[in-house]
Amino acid sequence: MKMGHSRLLLFFSAALIHLVIPTAAQYCYDTGNYTSNSTYRANLNTLLASMINNTKINYGFYNFSFGEAPDKVYAIALCRGDASPSECRSCISGASSDLLKACPNQKEAITWPNKCSLRYSNRSIFNAMEASPLFAFYNTGDVSDVEALNNVLLPLLNILRNRTASGNSTHKFALQSAPAQNFQTIYGLLECTPDLSKLECNSCSQQVQSFIPQCCNGKQGGKFVTPSCDIRFEVYSFYDPSVEPPPSPPPPSPSPPPLRKFSNGQKIAVKRLSRNSSQGEAKIKNEIILVARLQHRNLVRLLGFCLEGNERLLVYEFVPNGSLDRFIFACTIEGIARGLLYLHEDSQLRIIHRDLKASNILLDANMNPKISDFGMARLFQLDQTQGNTNRIKSLIPFKQTYLILIHMYSGYMSPEYAFHRQFSMKSNVFNFGMIVLEMVAGQKNNTFHIQDNGDGLVNYAWKQWRDGTTSNLVDPALRTDSTIEIMKCIHIGLLCVQENVDKRPTMASVVLMLNSESMSLSVPSQPTFLKDSRTRSNMLLVEHDSRKMRSTQSKTSSVQASEMMFQFRS
Predict the structure, then answer these.
(1) Does 278 score more than 70 pLDDT?
(2) Which residue stretches belong to region Disordered (predicted)?
């Protein structure tokens, strides 16, 4: 017989214990209030609507932010690992409505319906373990043999905790049953928010598990929820038993110990810098300092490094599917956007990548994108929006203007970077737009030509969008996918590559656009290379600057360089 939970639950926060009788576990933080017509409430509504309208249900885990400080809103939604897409969407929708009613003016709140949790705040809540507040529900039925229960329950929870903590950055969830005397079977479930590290997930679930004897010793079931992890056990099946993992195979027969230790069987990727590279030392140190302080499921993870003697090695997590320039998958676009959003706004650091391109987007075994290669990245102050560099990012030396123009025209360099050596978060947005257009077209920008007329990818994409023939741009392999989604990706890509920096969207807006079905998109303006007057002016400016740097070169070489620039413009 299935036993229901009592409506009486225990709520623990710090040293306080309260008895409450809610219909669902909800908590309104006392960390600040907002008014109904405030910017914070408008940002909150936009963020929650984006979650509800998200039809992709990627991983059942969402971590979004929207707006600018002090009205910026952060939100996390997590669906139970065994929830179907429709159950997930319905749960998040109901949780959004209920939480706004329960906490109508609080800037920070959290709720735990049956198959999901929803949380929002005016502070960053991403990649942070929080085991308080803790809500503890318990089943009103008692077991006849408490010791027998604990002899089965505790080892089962230990197995679930280790399996959950060992999950990946998109899924930290485990469930399993175990046979027991008298009460036949115990069913258990454990989950962490996937943005936690293995150590943080293990720590959170250990804290919750250690509380079970104090609260619910001898009870037939219990449910324990915190912002970062939750545990549930019952003597009846509260989930579909068919989703349980198969039983573990028997342990292998003992084998002789290895002759030496270094390897634990983990696959790794090693990046080795050339010993002749003059920038190797600075680039590798820059990458070590930055990547070691960043943790996100859409950023490649640094495992170690070597700076001994002449060796310059970086050791990364192994991503078996290589880089994005070998694959064209529309489903990776959102992951790249999320990784950039984390770098720009949601991490404790503010990072401008400066070398974002398809070959620096790696794909793991599940085709999840990982942003890599932070050797050229720059760390910004939180209130800094733009930077300058005395060295152009390209490996092509700044000696001949036409070479710089070729790199800008065929690569990822934004106009403000190429012409004025200025970079900002909007430079990364430009790079992202180029990647999106490449993915949709199924071709690299630097090899894209249509009927030998010299059109680059940006030019061609704009003309097709302007003429209402955007489907001509789409890779035939993608034409079986959702036409609406692909057209939206092209639209977003063109918004990101606009010449005017201020008109390009932020990555927060890009993520919302990708996940919203109702959000209207602005009309993109013409990209850089179609504006003759502006382009000619900028070309002459670069020619003037570069002439100063190569004063020893002949006048003939300068004329030839100028002629080549205008040939590439047409």
Answers:
(1) no
(2) 242-261
Greater confidence (276 vs 553) lies with 276
**What tokens does 570 get?**
């047409």
**Cα-only R_g, the chain:** 27
Of 364, 515, 505, nearest in space to 432 by CA: 505
- Name residues whose C-beta falls within 8 Å of residue 472's C-beta, 6 or more positions apart in sequence: 464
Q: Three-class SS of residue 197? A: coil
> Is the separation of the CB atoms in 507 and 513 below 8 Å?
no
Closest listed residue to residue 405, CA positions, set 296, 225, 538: 538
Residue 350, pLDDT score: 80
Phi, psi of 225 (to 5 degrees): -130, 140
In this predicted model, what pLDDT tens digit does every residue of 22-73 receive, in sequence order?
A: 446 889 999 999 999 999 999 999 999 888 876 455 568 888 899 998 999 9
Instruction: Record the tokens describing residue 240, joined without a space.
Output: 């579909």
Please compute the mean of the pLDDT values over residues 382-393 and round it to a whole number: 47
As a dihedral over the C-alpha atoms of residue 285, residue 307, residue 357, residue 329, rounded to 10 degrees, the angle is -130
Q: Phi first, then psi: what are they for 433, rounded to 5°?
A: -60, -40
Contacts of 356 (CB under 8 A, 6+ apart): 340, 371, 412, 428, 431, 432, 435
Catalytic residues: 355
CATH numbers and ranges of domains, the chain: 32-121 (3.30.430.20), 140-243 (3.30.430.20), 268-549 (1.10.510.10)
pTM metric for this prediction: 0.59
- Of 466 and 558, the one with more pLDDT: 466
